[in-house]
Amino acid sequence: MIWSATPAGGRAAATGLAALMWALASIFALRGLTLRPVVHNYPPQFQPQFSPALHIHATLPTPTPGGEDFGDEPDNVHPLQR
Fold first, then answer.
1. C-alpha dist (Å) from residue 72 to 50, 55, 67, 68, 77
2. d(Cα 26, Cα 21) in Å, to the nearest integer?
3. DSSP 45-80
4. Close Cβ partners of 76 (under 8 Å, ≥ 6 residues apart)
5. Distance separating alpha carbons of residues 19 and 12, to the nearest angstrom
6. Other Cβ atoms within 10 Å of 69 Cβ, number
7. Span 20-25, mean pLDDT?
8. Per-residue confidence (pLDDT) for residue 76, from 0 to 100
9. CA 78/CA 11 separation, integer angstroms
10. Cα torsion 53, 58, 62, 67: sign
11. Is the pTM of this model over 0.90?
């Protein structure tokens, strides 16, 4: 387009100048194009202190002393306790 639109005396100079400007614009435009992700390899400034604590309050029944209780006596049914 530049070659055909320029008068005969300055076609070579106009085409060369247009190619140079096109190359400079392409260099500045494509310099910011990055396809790699940005990786930050430094620790964060704030590191929260995490100290988990688990408190279980359970009451265990006391074991019954004595022989073998297989549950075949009539006293094997007990009411629910809270």
1. 52, 38, 13, 11, 10
2. 8
3. S-------------PPPPPPPSS---S-SGGG----
4. 69
5. 11
6. 10
7. 92
8. 64
9. 110
10. negative
11. no
